[in-house]
Structure formats: structure tokens, C-alpha cells
Amino acid sequence: MLEIYTIGEDILREKSKKVEKFDSALELLVDAMLEKMDEADGVGLAAPQIGVNLRVFVIDDHRRVRTAFINPEIVETSMEECSMEEGCLSIPGVYSFLTRSEKVTVQAQDVNGKTFRIEADELLARAIQHENDHLNGVLFVDRLEEKTRSKLIRTYEKRNKIQKGSIL
Fold first, then answer.
1. What is the DSSP string of 104-161?
2. Which among 2, 17, 63, 92 counts the fewest CB atoms within 10 Å?
3. How far apart are CA 52 and CA 23, in angstroms?
4. 3-class DSSP state for residue 27?
């Protein structure tokens, strides 16, 4: 059974490594990630969140996309932005409004190594940006203003009985 790593774990702050081998182990990883994401009722899940330092994330935007993005690159972002409430499976119970690009174009590979490109908007664009951040060691709270981030982290630490200041 996979465990979702939470804020304070070193792997969540590391830049993930490029996937080089497209084999059955990768397929098993993706299947396990989709299952864990469903179990946690998430929209997306990145490999570092389960302790795997690879450039892989999965998304199910509950509309049109349920797939794995391997070695993703955001190749274009719109100038238009939108603010929506965002949360993260690695920081359970913490939510805040965050402004991100309204539309993105991402290029990635599937589990067989075939390259694909998706133009995304709304929830899918937000999820792609959020999960791609995980692959670069960035959590959504890092994108918040310092005052908001500090308040949310203090609340999280208090609720989870974590030593103050130990998770960032």
C-alpha cells in the first residue's frame, strides 16, 4: 500500500529525475499512482508524493483526462490568469486561493514513451501546473504570499502536533 508523503519530507523538495526506462515497472507505478489518487479522492498525484523521485504525475480531472504525464514540460502558458482554491494531498486540510495561468500547453510522454501534447484550461490546466510543480520540488503553498503561507503552515503544524517551524 502506497503512502502519501506530507510536507516536511525531503523528497517533496527535490527536483525529480527524468524517466529513462519505459517498462512494466513504470506501468505498475502509474497504475498504483492512479489507484492511490482515487483512494485519496485527488485530482492529481506526482511520483514524489509517494516517495519516487521520477518526473511522473497522473491526473483525473473528472471530465476529460485520466492519464499519466511522464517527463512533462509546460511549453506554453497563457497571459490570462485565474484564481481558484487549491489544496494538496501532501498538505491535507490546507486550502487557499492561488492565481495560476488559465491555459497551458504541456508536452509529455505516455507509459510507452510516445510523446503527446495537450492544450488545457480550467481545472486541468491548474492540475497540470500543480503536479508539475511537485516534480520541481515546489508545493502550492510556496506560491502564496509569505503572510498567508506562514498562517496556513502554523495552523497545519498546530493541528497535526508538529514542532513549529520544522516543516519548511
1. EEEEEE-TTS-EEEEEEEHHHHHHHHHHHHHHTT--GGGGS-HHHHHHHHHHHHHHTT
2. 63
3. 16
4. helix
Whole-angstrom distance, CA of residue 9 vs CA of residue 22: 27
Q: Over 70: is that where the pLDDT of 64 sits?
A: no
DSSP H or E stretch at residue 68:
strand 66-77
Residue with cell 516517495: 51
| Angstrom distance (rounded) from CA 168 to CA 39 | 27
Cell of 40: 485519496
Asked whether the whole model's pTM tops 0.90, one would answer yes
Q: Which of the residues are catalytic?
A: 131
User: Grid coordinates 527536483 are at which residue?
Assistant: 15
CA distance 96 to 116: 31
Structural domains of the chain ordered from first start: 10-159 (3.90.45.10)
* pLDDT of 166 higher than 80: no
